[in-house]
Please model this.
Amino acid sequence: MNTYWPDYCQNFRCKADKCVHTCCAGWVVGIDEDSLARFNKEPDIACKIEDGCFVLRDDGRCPFLRDDNLCEMIIKHGENFLCDICKEHPRFYNEFEDHTEAGIGLVCEEACRLALTKDEPFTLVSEDGSKMELPDYVKAVFDTSKTLSEKLNEISGGRRADSKLRAEIFDGMEVMDPKWTTLLGKIIAEPVSAEEENKALADNEKELTNFAAYLLYRYKGAGRFASEAAYLLADLVIKGCGVQDVARVFSCEVEYSDINIDEALETFG
Ligand code: SF4
Model:
């Protein structure tokens, strides 16, 4: 069964010590059983595991993340020694009957850069070089004959929350980082008009189109969700954020909380 990836994933390399927002801090890493058995044979690793998870340092960093942001476990034992979650992050997989659609999550700053700065629509390529056509629900957002706001209007079935309500809905979800609440609070305190949103969409068309396409691909055509998320990013850009920065934070807050992503997909279903 073939696994297809957006073409930009071929260029993905973890930035390791060059990463500003490392994924090796702030997350509880659950260790798979095979890796746990392997780790338990190494006393210097086993002593940093509790209840099947790495015991994070007081500052939230993984106990194996050195001060120079390199992974002690990779240095000592090689990349293949890592547990599944560390080996796979930030990759995701959607299984279909006859193929798998994979990708890299925007929670990673390098994935964000690759996915959002692409000039042309991404294509889907498998490891053996075969190609798959983009699903129609992804193609819809790359149609160059329409403005991005027209396309968001179409994929959302004409439904669009106003900026304050939208920010309040996301603000009501589980919060990972209080800075997210502060950002949403700026929209709630001073809402953005539909005209301002449309201008921000036009001014940041490439990155926001790629962002909507990523969500449509990952969430199998969840048009209303992709549309509201793109508008939310436009609102945050108006409040002074950079598109890539806020896409990464959105991914972290909404996509990488099981509770939040379920709620968002249901609310904007
Ligand atoms: S966020 Fe991405 S680039 Fe940074 S350490 Fe994690 S996988 Fe590597």
Q: What stands out?
A: The longest strand covers residues 99-104. The pocket of iron/sulfur cluster is lined by residues 14-15, 19, 22-24, 89-90, 108-110 (CB under 6 Å). The mean pLDDT is 96. The two ends are 30 Å apart (CA to CA).
